[in-house]
């Protein structure tokens, strides 16, 4: 059933990242009108692809993978002629050895000594026994990892990287992140899968994924092109300064400064900007307790170094996670392994090195040159991945509000902020920053498409995305997704222009 009576006439979208543009794409392709306001001089948000002297690199390295085949078909239509298939190889570098990620039990046996294997096995059995006799509350990230893998495997494969990403001890972080990112995985499932013959195996990790040939930013660029072609507006260099709520479904958004300042009025707001910022932009102002809760919603920032190399290839990996506190970066990806179009020629490659930090801390306070030099030193001296003579140059990109921090109070703070926003009829949130949820880029796009459909009057739940009960990259035989999803089956017959019809 479609409720066409409450479809807004003009939707104002705050942020031209993948989620916001997906809302606009779905809404405009079926005849609606939107204005997208973006603070940056480009679209894409966290999915930007930076170009540097013939090299291209994504901030973070975003893959396209979803179990929803209707959504895959949408992606194939949007990116027709621009898709390449990428072999998925994700590994952990720990004490000079490579381990598959997610953890494969066979790797642990092959790459560690028998005492470590026994220690890992006994620590897991001990935790399992404790939980069966006297179940312990899962209070924080450490508890959650230990319950799934035991103390030893937690210390080997999760503790250092997690604390590097979030800048806090795992005991001070919510267990929600673990349940969201490694649901369904445990030592039992890994051992069972390792012992089954290939014909018997019921689960497998994805072996390849789709990727835009010229970088992930091509997805938001294509959506923006279609939005403009449909007669709507995407305004760049237009940072939101305040939002006036005149009453139900009546908003005025002010943006820009000086001569470029302006305002736009609409009957619905879709926000992808950080959830806490949205609450503080609203007028009339929210209560002091809401402002305080909004301020407590923290993000981690990121310094990304793209190191240009006179070398054909460094590793075969799509991602490589580095478990070593002494190394400044936590994750590596090699863009050439994703698409040959990401480098100027076959004799060169590059490494994207992610240095997790918070504005004002020791890493952020270093100069770009100092961070790049520490990256080169670690790659050459400790990891032995490169020779200094192979370094051609580097590009540094600083990204704020990259990762929502799931501290121990974040749920209460979200609830307080949402209690205020829910009183404003016509406000909608979507995307990683907008919902304060650690979404992958394809999750954010699916959320956006669903919210676009919701605005068009469909009975769908965009907040159900990324809430599945199993690890997102595991495929089970005969698996179907039962939550609301972006599907051809509920497309209205009279909407012949809709892009959801296969």
Report a brief summary of the structure.
The protein folds into three domains: 10-48 and 69-83 and 212-296 and 408-490, FAD/NAD(P)-binding domain; 104-196, no CATH class; 299-404, Alpha-Beta Complex (Polyamine Oxidase, Chain A, domain 2), CATH 3.90.660.10.
Structure commentary:
- This protein has 502 residues and is of the alpha/beta class.
- It folds into three domains: 10-48 and 69-83 and 212-296 and 408-490, FAD/NAD(P)-binding domain (3-Layer(bba) Sandwich), CATH 3.50.50; 104-196, no CATH class; 299-404, Polyamine Oxidase, Chain A, domain 2, CATH 3.90.660.10.
- It contains 16 helices and 22 strands.
- It has helices spanning 18-29, 69-78, 105-111, 114-133, 141-157, 159-166, 176-181, 187-195, 218-229, 275-281, 288-296, 362-365, 368-382, 410-421, 431-435, 441-455; strands at residues 10-14, 33-37, 49-52, 55-58, 83-87, 90-94, 97-100, 203-205, 208-212, 233-235, 240-247, 250-255, 262-266, 268-271, 282-283, 299-309, 319-322, 331-333, 349-357, 391-404, 427-429, 474-476.
- The strands form six sheets. It has a seven-stranded mixed sheet with strand order 7-6-17-18-19-16-20.
- Strand 12 and strand 13 form a beta hairpin.
Features of the shown structure:
alpha/beta; FAD/NAD(P)-binding domain; Polyamine Oxidase, Chain A, domain 2; 3 domains; 7-stranded mixed sheet; 16 helices; 33% helix; disordered C terminus
